[in-house]
């Protein structure tokens, strides 16, 4: 097992080698033999010293050559270089072998995993499958893989339901890194835990919220070493490498002590422990103690300060073409390289480039231009061979749409050229979250405030967008499945957030970004999202019921990139932000961006300031200005079946925002409570990611909530919205909540409402009384009585309602609230069932008498009969799980039904099936009927020999849009499959298939058909390297036509069969023979209306290479090219000689007596002539 990163040769070149002097006995169990005296300067044959295997690392000088004239007599020691014994006592080697045998029996390994290991921080609690009550005992387990960098840890218990947006800190409990602590939960409504760890300078990392009063369904394992990471903030710089100690066959009842910690192996005897250690030398001790096994040993590991992996190729050719008596000089070349490493200062750098083969003068002219295919695609097996039989795999470590990628990073500072997310944060008006191609630079200071933020940070990006951006705003339906407005979504480009918005003022109250894989899953081909938890349509109800459907809207906002059907995208996107905490309390920031993408032609800039009064208290102000049109968005109220488009605005505008949030207890007011206030002004023409202002708007408001005593809480609020179209909406009121005792609670509210718009004008004053009773720990009920005291122009709002919250104790809970009155019937009912095995079931019904149709100018529908939602997921057994959801919306004159079903079935540990079905239907007498069916079938198989996967996607849409007179019929079939079969260690077979058949109106997906099938076979014997063979067959059928020169023009259509066989055999050390047979059966057409023309060709190549002496190679190659339609056969001969210069470069001179090359795609017939070729590889 290799313990050191550097090989012997490289260490000798550096002038330092480490010689390990091993004496008998220290690496094995303590021996009982007595010490022996030397006899004639040597140990007796049956004796060994107690320190016989003690290892000592001895650095040597520059001279490490062996002196052949000195014979080293064995004498109780052994010299080992890089783990290999060089000279010494055979008995010492036998002792080492005994230790290795003992380690092999326990299958214990100590390995260095390289620099740049990803730090992990997490916190796990007991009874994660249950929601805990206040006073319940809970055990927390700290989990991190870098305790060497941490001096202390703590668990912070926070009630997110009180104390303002940040919640109230209730307790701080110390905990050792990777240790445990036990507490009783304090009182609180929505308790969460945050794990925070500190380094010696007070910098800290912390996790996301870990729910306590709700189920923690993150699916974590009880094993500290499973590798989960829940960090939300990182402030501790970590430089070093990961060391992993693992074992597989530890005897039952044994414990393992290593890296300063004790590990309890699993029942099958396995264990794994990974820790990040600083650079330098470390002695890793492993002790296994148990009734059936006693083992102890030590291994020295060096974690280098620097590390580098690189590979490069430089190919240049100078030649003279001779054709029809004329000669032409050409120069062609290619530069390709990849490098990743760390230097002494802890800087990680990644560089990659591939210019592809081109004229040398053109290699770097378009070096920064984006390419329709990424760097990885340009090393696609389609262009070479799909499988080489060497077991290699591809990792896209340099994502880029151009020819060049670069990333330099250290301590969260980075500079990137390639694909990355251009994100501007801490600004409301100029937020940006797009994934772009270009330059992206981020810097932040290592100094931090007492709250963990960097003192200063800056972000700058300049990019060439490769796709068009899309923003969808979907109103919550109470369900978990939503359809995006586009298909063919760019993978990984989505940013999904849940947004809480005031429907009166349009102000965003709060937003939370969802985590992919945990909070949602995306089907990129179908363009659909499945949430882990259903999303309601409204939230945030006060005492007075202003709107039966809820006082705030919950929206699912999806920002993503999609591939346009009209070709590639041109333009530029530039932006940046700088912010600095001048003091621990004062932050200033400036932001700016410029968009020239598609129809967008906008400049925007702004400045903001934030003054922090405490951890949860602040005052903030922002100013922003936009010039020109930005991006529009699409919105839907039915889960994405029907969308309404909001076009971008032309013109200029500006926006101003001032807001504050004050935590009274934090500011020393002597009582709990919050005070918040805001003011916004947006002029006509201002637009941003979240706002499009068609007329000047002004909005302001405040909210006060104070706990006057343990029993009494009172509050006041006011919201006011006005615009230049003489529209005004305002709401204001006071409310008080009195806790009579632990069972009874009374709430009173008084509210005044004013409306001035084209649809309603007037005012109204309402009073409400609500009674809540906690019948027992599992049941609470509430009663609402509300009356209008006065009104003018507005309808009265008399109302009576009932509410119930019931926990049946068997996994079922019911939350139901319904009310009726002069404004209509409203209800929100949700029954849910949760089990510890991750199974759930839910049923919901909601009705909003104020609901309106976005397709009909916001007209309210008086006969809305509500929306039903029924769904769930179930883990039937270890092999089968399924989910399903049905949403039935009886929405006035329009009924809609959406159904989603899915099954995951794993009959064996190697095979998994998945099935998904989506059905959507709308019956609308005004806009027209619409139906959608989408089916997804998938399978995956993986064992030691075969790896295969496949997926079929089918989508059928039928309907007419009567409002726009557009036919919405579309059919889409997509199939992707791949398989790799390892016949044996020497032979590998690979195949993959991509198929698309689309019949659309080309608004989202292009109309046409595509089939791309590739079969590859490789023979690479492992017992010798004399014979190698590669085979490739490709069928390509394209009726889409490729984009030409980045325009909307369609390129030629084609149908092609192409196959190639390459083989080489080494006759002896001097002679190698090889050959190639290729064929192309092709038909091409200039366009959809043009006829196909046949274009077939056959190529045969035979060659011989002679290795003259150490530095010289000779090549002779015969070629034959047959063109069927031209009825011609061309013969050619190529001869070349190459001179090697060291191990990394060779230069050759040759002459091609034929006019064609060995590339079937080369139709120029201009290759005859002399050439000089130089190749360097590293």
TrEMBL record:
<feature type="signal peptide">
    <location>
        <begin position="1"/>
        <end position="28"/>
    </location>
</feature>
<keyword id="KW-0732">Signal</keyword>
<protein>
    <submittedName>
        <fullName>Uncharacterized protein</fullName>
    </submittedName>
</protein>
